[in-house]
Design a protein that fits this description.
The protein has about 100 residues and is mostly helical. It is built from 3 helices and 3 strands. α2 runs antiparallel to α3. The longest helix has 18 residues.
Length: about 100
């Protein structure tokens, strides 16, 4: 939105994103580490960078998501589990 000049919509999206609480799970399902990385984390960090670092709330939300995702790496594993239960912060295998 920002690079297309839709600044009013971008500001609305920033305001909305600022109020999301990623520390609390909104779903009983597990979340994909890959999908969360490319969509949430990638989107928040991209928006932050493309806006010339004007919205620190985007960076703070990206950190909140990354902190939850850190639970996918358990023990000495260099490869994360594929899914995380955000409610319990426990990694799970795909079934």
């Amino acid at each position: 939105m920002h690079i297309m000049g839709l600044d009013d919509l971008f500001q609305e999206a920033v305001n909305f994103s600022s109020n999301i609480d990623f520390s609390i799970s909104q779903t009983p399902d597990t979340v994909s580490v890959f999908e969360t990385s490319i969509r949430y984390l990638g989107g928040l960090l991209s928006a932050y960078e493309l806006s010339d670092n004007q919205y620190p709330a985007l960076l703070a939300k990206a950190k909140q998501v990354a902190d939850k995702m850190a639970f996918a790496w358990v023990g000495n594993n260099v490869v994360p589990f594929g899914f995380i239960d955000f409610a319990s912060n426990s990694p799970t295998r795909a079934t």
